[in-house]
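Reagents: none. Just compute today. Flavodoxin-like fold protein.
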Amino acid sequence: MPAGTKGFLDKVLTKGVVYKEPDKVGRSINGIPNIQSVTLLTVMSTPKVLYRWLLGNPLPKILFRGTFRKIGVKNLQWISAHDPAGKSPQTRQKLLTKVEDRFARLPHTSTSLRQMSASTAPSRS
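Predicted 3D structure written out:
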């Protein structure tokens, strides 16, 4: 995993906030039960067959098995665009539509997130 990705995950998925260590060996305790699903969106120039079969799908394995399942997130989906430069405009549009549809089905929490960030932002006096 690239160091930048690892650093991002370490900052966002903070132990004690997002998850807690279990008392016994096993799955960590999800500290944010509102996280019902995770959708991983990737764009890469590596051909799909090469990435899945020769390289073994490293990114979804690391993030899904090694991170999100351990904190109790069960609904995981991977949307990947392999070699978008080699695809027709129609194929690229289908992928964009699929991504838009996926995120449109999610509960809309953007307003509450904006309100949260506004209430925690430092005042400008």
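Helices lie at 3-12, 48-54, 58-68, 89-104, 110-120.
Action item: order primers for follow-up constructs.
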